[in-house]
Amino acid sequence: MKLALVSAVALPALVSAHGLRDLHHARQQADQAAAASGSSSAAAPATSSAAAGSSVAPGSSAAPGTTAPAAATGATLTFTLASTNPTALPLSDIASGASTQPTVAASTTYAAGSTPTFLSGAPALPAISSIVVANYPTLDKTPPTDSAEVQQWKQEVANSGITIPDIDPTVAGGCAANPQAAADSSRCWWTCGGCTANADVVACPDKMTWGLTYDDGPALYTGDLLSYLDQQDLKATFFVVGSRAISYPALLQEEYMAQHQIAVHTWSHPEMTTLTNDQVIAELGWSRKIIKDVLGVTPTYWRPPYGDVDNRVRAIATAMGLQTSIWTRISASATFDTGDFNIAGGTTNSEQVLNNWHSIVNNATQINTGFIVLEHDLFQQTVDIAMDYILPDALAHQPPFKIEPIVSCLGKPLSDAYIETNDNKSNPIGASASGSSGSGSAQASGSSNSTGGSANNGAMGGFAAPSALAGVAFGVIAGALGLFL
């Protein structure tokens, strides 16, 4: 990809790019070891990204410790791309251990008080310089639950009127380590069986519509992705990890001011079902808080890391004004996860990721709804494969895809993505919109119109729009860079 170096205001990044790669490798090796020691579970984990019968790389949809198909590190391309970026790197250069490219900071920095004119009633941008690192939890660790902030958020949940199911947390190790939980359909545990509540956002309602999403940033190469999206007049949903938002607040402001949708992806990227209720509240609350302090607005959507969510975690998120959003899954062997995250760690190669993408496209043209794909803006490899290959191929597809953020593909205005600008009338959180549940054959059928307590197992669920619930005062954090998927 072609890079342009630009300056930007950013809080100190305390880990170098090289250090980040090392951090990732250590985490991924631990995950692989856990997966290798696991046995088959009572329910099939939703880990695969390609169509049934195709070769699949283990994707980031799988929580650490869940079983996943063997990586296809020697895969070759099985199809011809419709288009590529004229400045695309060779696939051999988008690989683990690739030469480090120059990083790209925010192309535009915004003064405190700048107005987001595209959002009626939106607050002015806060001052990044006002962020005090010491006021926020340690990066990339689940925050303590005894802080005044967490106590306030616990009261918010208690006052919501939403009943939190009495479900025990799972233990680390995924489906194999939790056979009873995996077999308990009342949990509606996505990780083991792909269960979705009818209120979960798992696809766009309209056929050939792609809800474009990127997880885990902002990070070192997000700026280059933003530049490409701007050149192509594309908007996306960015699921932001709180610990990354503190590291790159200027990039987060650029995402927001470029009219991309900003959503919550927790503070430290844990397996959410393994946490206590208070820890779930802390993870969601601190992520909301940093986003609010950098942007002035509070997201109404969130995505569980690894897709690891059950009815307990869903209910807590709903009580905190957050709409659960995952990605499309039409069978145990066909989840719309490109597997891009695994390139940097060497457990898959770029050719396999593109084969996964090709399978996603084939399935997307067969189902009766639109779709949502899991991708990441965390590493240079994930950004390179997106802007050099996946997005150009998608833009050249015939018939054309309609590519837009999740909130837009649901037929909602961007204002509904934030508490402060949501009209709180047409967009009640947890209320199901018209949608379909798909089968393993990739044919959609049926309607989902019940509340989040109902579930669809192994199929595409319904669609819902989040609403503005009472906002909570949030703060910000600034600090170091440690990376998660």
UniProtKB/TrEMBL annotation:
Its EC number is 3.5.1.41. This is chitin deacetylase. PROSITE patterns: NODB. It is a lipid-anchor; GPI-anchor. GO terms for molecular function: chitin deacetylase activity; metal ion binding. Residues 429-453 are annotated as: Disordered. Belongs to the polysaccharide deacetylase family. The chain crosses the membrane at residues 463-484. The lineage of its organism: Eukaryota, Fungi, Dikarya, Basidiomycota, Agaricomycotina. It comes from the Eukaryota. GO terms for biological process: cell wall organization; chitin catabolic process; fungal-type cell wall biogenesis; polysaccharide catabolic process. GO terms for cellular component: plasma membrane; side of membrane. Residues 430-453 have a biased composition (Low complexity). Its cofactor is Co(2+). Pfam families: Polysacc_deac_1 (PF01522). It catalyses: [(1->4)-N-acetyl-beta-D-glucosaminyl](n) + n H2O = chitosan + n acetate. It comes from Lentinus tigrinus ALCF2SS1-6. Keywords: Carbohydrate metabolism, Cell membrane, Cell wall, Cell wall biogenesis/degradation, Chitin degradation, Cobalt, Glycoprotein, GPI-anchor, Hydrolase, Lipoprotein, Membrane, Metal-binding, Polysaccharide degradation, Secreted, Signal, Transmembrane, Transmembrane helix. Gene3D superfamilies: Glycoside hydrolase/deacetylase. InterPro entries: Glyco_hydro/deAcase_b/a-brl, NODB_dom, Polysacc_deacetylase_ArnD. Residues 1-17 form the signal peptide.
